[in-house]
Design goal:
single chain, 6 helices, alpha+beta, L-fuculose-1-phosphate Aldolase
């Protein structure tokens, strides 16, 4: 019996395909993981496998210490995502994070390459990301030290961080919410880029928004 349920594997596969459909990832870029706290482990996408060639049984289960606990069923030689150490660092820093989505979407990368913080100007952005998304200066992203710096820059309150010239890491209390963060930040980045060309956009502050009790998020 796998430590990762079929439902979790299927959900990861679904959002892998959705990330391509929504233009957040292409080729073999990006990765997704989900925490399995009862086993002190995470389940993560394999490295260097196209999403359209991936299957739920290809997901790899890894302990909090980075040791592979379960390989993919179709090909045991496949390795976990190269950014595994970064995922593990984010989970250590953020006990509220149940899932992580790393994307390489266009306008996130435009603003990241410019070194511009992604300020919230759209409601979905401020509701899901909870605040301005910081930009981490470029460096190679497959080691634990990078992961620790990335997690520290994201902090404890905002739900995403941009890696300059590389993409976005989004966390959430569920995979559904982590994916919504990634979508919201990309949409906001596109509108922010165009709005700044036209003038000075109005920024939103999460703490200033009066969300009526019982309101459902979009």
């Amino acid at each position: 019996m796998s430590r990762a349920s079929k439902a979790v594997r299927d959900e990861i596969m679904y959002y892998c395909l959705e990330s391509v459909k929504n233009g957040l990832n292409f080729n073999t870029q990006g990765n997704i993981s989900v925490r399995i706290p009862e086993h002190e482990a995470i389940v993560i996408t394999p490295s260097d496998v196209r999403y359209d060639a991936m299957a739920p049984e290809d997901m790899i289960v890894v302990g909090y210490d980075g040791a592979v606990l379960e390989t993919g069923e179709r090909d045991a030689s496949w390795l976990p995502s190269t950014e595994l150490p970064v995922h593990l660092a984010a989970y250590r820093r953020r006990p509220d994070a149940a899932a992580i989505v790393h994307t390489e979407s266009t306008f996130v990368n435009v603003l990241g390459a410019l070194g511009r913080t992604i300020d919230p100007i759209l409601l979905n952005m401020v509701l899901y990301a909870k605040g301005p998304v910081p930009i981490m200066p470029f460096e190679f992203s497959t080691n634990a030290a990078f992961g620790e710096r990335s997690a520290a820059l994201m902090g404890d309150d905002v739900f995403a961080v941009v890696w300059a010239n590389h993409g976005l890491l989004a966390v959430g209390t569920s995979l559904k919410l982590a994916f919504k963060v990634a979508v919201a930040v990309e949409e906001n980045a596109e509108v922010l880029y165009h709005a700044q060309l036209a003038g000075t956009p109005n920024l939103l502050v999460y703490g200033d928004i009066d969300v009526p009790a019982g309101t459902r998020l979009p």
